[in-house]
Amino acid sequence: MNQKFNFAVLLVIILISGCLKEKCEITSSQCDKQDTKSGGALEGCSFKQLRYNYTIRDYYLNSDECACNFKDETKYRYELVECCNDTDCSFDEKCGDNKCERIKCGDCQYIGEHKCIKNECCEDKDCRTDYECKNNVCKEKPITPIIEVVDNIIILKNKKDVTYAYDDCEAVDKIAYSTPKIMKYIYSRFDDIFDYAIIVTNFDTCVALLQENIKNEIKGIGLDIFDKSKIYGGADKLKGIVRMGSTNGLALTSKFTFLHEFGHNWGIFINSGLKDEHNHWDNLAFLDSCDAMSASGGQFILKEDGSYFLKQCADEWGYSELMLYLMGLVSKEEISNNDYHLLEGVDENDPFKGYNIKSTYSINNIIRLNGERIPTPNESKKNFKVAFILVTDKDGASSKEIKKLHQIMENYINWFSEATHNRANIDFSIG
């Protein structure tokens, strides 16, 4: 009975509250009239359209609270334009205030990427000394090589055209020469007949002694297969260039220096403990002769007690059998029984006590690390055509210089033949 009484009381209270609540006098239309729009700011431009954003404040009737509440909503308006950025315009126009405008460039300029770009050159003075301005591009001046051939010596009289200033040079005139330029001039006159080139000057230069590998097609000698001949005039046969100093230098007449620099056309590049980091035979490598590619400047001789001592080589320079293998002049079978040693001092503080064997190598060890030499000796070239080039100024060479160089060329021919045990020869003839 109490429960029924409580429910009846509650019902009466609810009915009384409803009757007492005032009626809401605000209508939906009144709320709608309060709607506002603000903004209109430019938000961005893309696809040739300007985008404006607006904030719409939308009022609505909340009957429970008898009030106009609101919610904000962003809306957009788009306006078509001619361009948003330069890429919307043609190549000779740029975008300004959403309109494509014609670009006007000054003298010695051209239109590119919707802007004015300065030409590489307008006059010859804008280029390097050995270049000229052609159609607003710096191009190498066409220089006529001044070449004279005397007793198979190719005399290039374009010293000023192939040399350049080299500040770090120790030579008096601080100049060096460009081997690519020299060879380009040579090939403007001669056919592609040279396997190698020897360059001499009658003036002092930087980097007087140096061998440059131009092209390598030999496998198994530790040198990558490559071809840089294009920058040297595009000669297909040219494999290397040797700088042999000047006509008044001692190196030019040195048997060791010639065989050493010319030998760099083939070595020493192999992966082996017998070589050092400068592409020479290590100064503690024991070979079978006074090899001109050795860093020691001598030959190790076996003593009666089983140790070795270093003997300085005088005029006995040549190429060891291992070097001849790298040059393609002996086969692996011919030296298969040979052992080559890397030595170490008995007493590191006293070299006169001699040397002992530290490690031993055979041709099979070398082939295992580097691969077999290809082409084989049966297929390798053994007669090498060599250009002997003398670079001078326009006055050329004196008769005394010609006579000296002619004798040097004869020496080189004989020294190379002896060093290879008559297995190969060099030919300086032009014909």
Notes on the structure:
The protein has 431 residues and is α+β, with helices and mostly antiparallel strands. The protein has three domains: 28-81, no CATH class; 86-140, no CATH class; 147-427, no CATH class. It contains eight helices and 25 strands. It has helices spanning 2-20, 28-32, 159-162, 179-187, 255-263, 321-326, 363-370, 399-419, and strands at 36-46, 49-62, 67-80, 93-96, 99-102, 109-112, 115-118, 131-134, 137-140, 147-150, 153-156, 163-165, 175-177, 196-201, 209-213, 215-216, 226-227, 240-246, 285-286, 298-302, 308-312, 340-345, 355-361, 383-391, 425-427. A hairpin with a 5-residue loop joins strand 20 (298-302) and strand 21. The termini are far apart. 25% of the residues are buried. The mean pLDDT is 88.
Strand composition percent: 25-35%
Counting structural domains, the number is 3
Shape: elongated
User: What number is the mean pLDDT?
Assistant: 88
Helix content estimate: 10-25%
Structural class: alpha+beta
Q: Show unreliable segments.
A: none
Radius of gyration: 44 Å
Count of helix runs? 8
Query: What's the count of strands?
Result: 25
The biggest sheet amounts to:
7 strands, mixed
Ends apart, CA distance between termini:
140 Å
What's this entry about, in short?
By secondary structure, this protein is an alpha+beta fold.
Short key terms for the protein model shown above:
431 residues, alpha+beta, 3 domains, 7-stranded mixed beta sheet, 8 helices, 25 strands
